[in-house]
């Protein structure tokens, strides 16, 4: 499998400024955090659901051609209503996700257009992703086959076991990795197929490619590209949006 993928990497050709068909896969099937009995993706930021902010970012990207949403079975209908109400025209499919993240990503990949050459996999709970972050990851993946946005870790990080510090990694080598993680479609399909077959435990999609020994480029992320995981993150997101609106005036 790894030999086949290495050939895919080497054989991929890209010309500068070439436009490749890109499918955005929005992962919205996670367990989520309930806020007053509501899935966090339906919680509002500045008057609109988290998920709508996320979808609009990819709707507005000129480099994204289609959006596929992978959702919980019981929320497919509600998400369909949001897509219609907020006129998210690039959504082509809303499908049921799997038990694990890699299952949902794989299910989404199996539904992309036959024209798809790039797949941008994004956490639905990252509603503040900017056009710059999306574009940089897509363009870099088009050239180098795989790219993920990241930001340098600000805090000192310790390796701890049983309450004791084992080591202190060099902070200059540590990055917090974000989404969208973008790959040549055939490569990530093959990598996730291998990961699922081997029952690998993945915390992001990039790991599937890493496990095959293939190179992934890190692009410029954004400290404001936060993931909504707790109710306090909603307040932080609203503060970021207020700051952005002031800067735009």
What report would you give on this structure?
- This protein has 249 residues and is an alpha/beta fold.
- The chain has a single domain, classed as Spore Coat Polysaccharide Biosynthesis Protein SpsA, Chain A.
- 36% of the residues lie in helices and 23% in strands.
- It has 8 helices and 14 strands.
- Strands 1, 6, 7, 8, 9, 12, 13 and 14 form an 8-stranded mixed sheet that branches. The chain has a two-stranded antiparallel ribbon with strand order 2-3.
- Strand 4 and strand 5 (48-49) form a beta hairpin.
- The mean pLDDT is 91.
What layout of secondary structure does this protein have?
Layout: H1 2-11, E1 22-28, E2 34-35, E3 38-39, E4 44-45, E5 48-49, H2 50-59, E6 66-71, H3 76-85, E7 91-96, H4 101-109, E8 118-123, H5 131-144, E9 146-152, E10 159-161, E11 164-167, E12 175-177, E13 181-184, H6 185-197, H7 206-210, E14 217-220, H8 231-248
Parallel strand pairs: 1-6, 1-8, 6-7, 9-14
Antiparallel strand pairs: 2-3, 4-5, 8-13, 9-12, 9-13, 10-11
Unreliable stretches covering 5 or more consecutive residues: none
**What would CATH call the class?**
Alpha Beta
The average pLDDT score comes to 91
The geometry reads as globular
Number of domains: 1
CATH fold-level topology: Spore Coat Polysaccharide Biosynthesis Protein SpsA, Chain A
Give the SSE order as H and E letters: HEEEEEHEHEHEHEEEEEHHEH
Q: Hey, roughly how much beta strand do the residues contain?
A: 15-25%
